[in-house]
Specification:
Structural class: alpha/beta
CATH superfamily of the largest domain: Response regulator
Keywords: DNA-binding, Transcription, Transcription regulation
Number of domains: 3
GO molecular function: DNA-binding transcription factor activity; transcription cis-regulatory region binding
Protein name: LacI family DNA-binding transcriptional regulator
Pfam family, one: LacI
Order of helices and strands: HHHHEHHEHEHEEHEHEHEHEHEHHEE
Helix content: 40-55%
Strand order of the largest sheet: 7-6-8-9-10-12
Shape: elongated
InterPro entries: HTH_LacI, LacI/GalR-like_sensor, Lambda_DNA-bd_dom_sf, Peripla_BP_I
Number of helices: 15
CATH class of the largest domain: Alpha Beta
Strand content: 5-15%
Number of strands: 12
CATH topology of the largest domain: Rossmann fold
Largest sheet: 6 strands, mixed
Radius of gyration: 23 Å
């Protein structure tokens, strides 16, 4: 005799989750044999399955049997940027740590232009991978929407807006920027400039917002004269620092929204005869190897890139498990689909 759910139906995944006291994603992981479940949780889920007589969606399980056991890390950036910025190596390192606990293989691909994205879309449409990790997404990049339309399990490294439909993992850019400005104001700096990231990246927008709000809370004035719009590159940092010194030679602090841009800004400050931190305090964002090896050491907002890569992978595995059960990821609670990891200000000699 087949057990029935609360309304005489065949028991659902949600009812199993409620009986076991876990989330639906956890039930899916147990059913699909994921190793990322504790023995205690696995036993609770198996007991709930037995008590309710739950039978998995056989059609979805048959589809899951055709899985490729591989996922793709897709980077819509030039290869040169990927290999020059520590952010990317940290992310991929975290992905590798998470995949070490599975039998999945990792595919790394670049898809910057329309032609490359068309080729990638055709590859993905042929079900060559089980899911996609999309890293470094710009708001006007159509790739994320194409993946959404193709209904491929996808997780992105930071939302494109506050209403992002795809699951995402981000760092708290807003709080990180506020901590940088609060630190500089607390050290008596009164003309605090910012070198932003590209504002078609939501994370860069949030850093600028955090900077502006903390200036007000610290009793300092926000002025466009102290804002230079960068691109997360070292050359961008040089260009922006040159602009800022021309507009506001009296500035006494700079918050660069990446360590690479801080490195470029440092070069210009030194060429201009400005001592760091005596004349101008300098703070970066990332706490990458660059920050630790600069002279003087760079104060920087630590962004947990390895943790982000690992969390993205774990979230993607949950999305794949849900897809195998025929469930839509959009039914999950927002907190489960959009993770924000904390930042930490690491103070060094530059400030």
């Amino acid at each position: 005799m087949v057990a029935r759910g609360t309304h005489g139906r065949r028991p659902t995944l949600e009812e199993v989750a409620a009986r076991a006291g876990v989330g639906r994603g956890t039930v899916s992981r147990v059913i699909n044999g994921s190793p990322r479940v504790s023995d205690r949780t696995r036993a609770a889920v198996e007991e709930a399955v037995a008590e309710l007589g739950y039978v998995p969606n056989t059609a979805a399980r048959a589809l899951a049997a055709n899985r490729t056991d591989s996922i793709a890390v897709v980077v819509p950036e030039a290869e040169s940027r990927f290999f020059s910025e520590p952010y990317f190596s940290g992310m991929v390192g975290g992905v590798g740590v998470a995949l070490a606990e599975t039998n999945l293989q990792l595919l790394l691909t670049f898809a910057r232009g329309e032609r490359e994205q068309d080729r990638l879309a055709a590859y993905l449409a042929a079900h060559r991978v089980d899911g996609v990790l999309l890293v470094s997404v710009h708001s006007d990049d159509p790739l994320a929407d194409r993946l959404l339309q193709m209904d491929i399990p996808t997780v992105i490294s930071g939302p494109r807006s506050a209403d992002e439909p795809l699951p995402s993992v981000d760092t708290d850019n807003y709080a990180g920027a506020r901590s940088a400005v609060d630190h500089l104001a607390g050290r008596g700096r009164r003309a605090v400039a910012i070198i932003t990231g590209p504002l078609d990246v939501y994370g860069a927008q949030r850093r600028l917002a955090g900077y502006a709000d903390q200036l007000g809370d610290s009793g300092l004035e926000y002025t466009e004269e102290l804002v230079a719009y960068g691109d997360f590159t070292e050359e961008g940092g040089r260009r922006c620092m040159t602009e800022l010194l021309e507009r506001r030679p009296d500035l006494d602090a700079v918050f660069a929204c990446s360590d690479l841009m801080a490195s470029g800004a440092r070069q210009v400050l030194r060429e201009a005869g400005r001592r760091i931190p005596d004349d101008v305090a300098l703070v970066g964002f990332d706490d990458s190897v660059i920050a630790r090896h600069m002279e003087p050491g760079l104060t920087s907002v630590r962004q947990p890139t390895r943790d982000m890569g690992r969390a993205m992978t774990e979230l993607l595995l949950d999305e794949i498990a849900l897809a195998a059960e025929g469930l839509r990821s959009s039914t999950r609670r927002r907190a489960e689909r959009h993770l924000v990891l904390p930042t930490e200000l690491v103070v060094r000699a530059s400030s």
